[in-house]
């Protein structure tokens, strides 16, 4: 008798889950625990840094080791009598939201490992020592840390496959489809969290370049485009270098600072996007010129 296709996929889910729990054990119970023990002696790295590197890995490990893996194991042992996993995955799905924090923190964690490996030789030695152990399979800490980031997409792929292979009359069809939808929503939630964090980080960098002017710093703003521009002076037929930042609600007309201490630019004019008009000019002497007129004033500008 050949195993039905959906059972093969369910077994693959169980096997990959066992391997994944071993990886989480390595991250939480070996790397995190040993680095934390050393940090407490005050010789390698501050405790706070170790906590920042590993984020909420302990909660993720406990959830998979104490709840999800045992549930899956029980279900697969009982498969012949009760061939279904959809309901178990539905219980799992809401908890996967805690991956949002880990995934958001991942790039920062990798940066911290690199920075502190350079700063603290004992920290670097301890990591190297753990990496030499058989359990690490010649892979780096960073490589192991990537595993939780890739786990939710893996669930999604396996479950899609499982739903595809289920016979139409399978008792698990309704549950499995609902579980897939829930996993899909969690993956979207995780990606949206990363995108939002990147947007805010980029916005903050722009605000620093502008000197953190109070009335400009607003987390809800969106930067659409920025770049150098020439300001045309009709009085003496000359141009001077300026810089524009276009947000969803305002255009900032800036002057690059000669001495760049702190801010890179000085805001000369802020124009509301509402009611703003842009008109192209046909000027032989100054090609690529246009007029920007707003409630505040009108500027004659030339693009590259």
Automatic annotation (TrEMBL):
One example GO MF annotation? zinc ion binding
Q: What is its main location?
A: cytoplasm
Q: Where in the cell is it found?
A: Cytoplasm, Cytoskeleton
Start and end of every PH domain? 222-304
**InterPro entries on file:** DBL_dom_sf, DH_dom, FYVE_RhoGEF_PH, PH-like_dom_sf, PH_domain, SOS1_NGEF_PH
Question: What top-level branch of life does the organism fall under?
Answer: Eukaryota
Q: Which GO terms describe its biological process?
A: cytoskeleton organization; filopodium assembly
Keyword entries, A-Z: Cytoplasm, Cytoskeleton, Metal-binding, Phosphoprotein, Repeat, Zinc, Zinc-finger
Could you tell me which residue ranges the DH domain spans? 5-193
Would you name any one GO CC term? cytoplasm
Gene3D superfamilies linked: Dbl homology (DH) domain, Pleckstrin-homology domain (PH domain)/Phosphotyrosine-binding domain (PTB)
Q: Which PANTHER family has this protein been placed in?
A: FACIOGENITAL DYSPLASIA PROTEIN, FYVE, RHOGEF AND PH DOMAIN-CONTAINING PROTEIN 2
Protein name (Swiss-Prot/TrEMBL) = FGD2 protein
Tell me the classification of the organism that encodes this protein: Eukaryota, Metazoa, Chordata, Craniata, Vertebrata
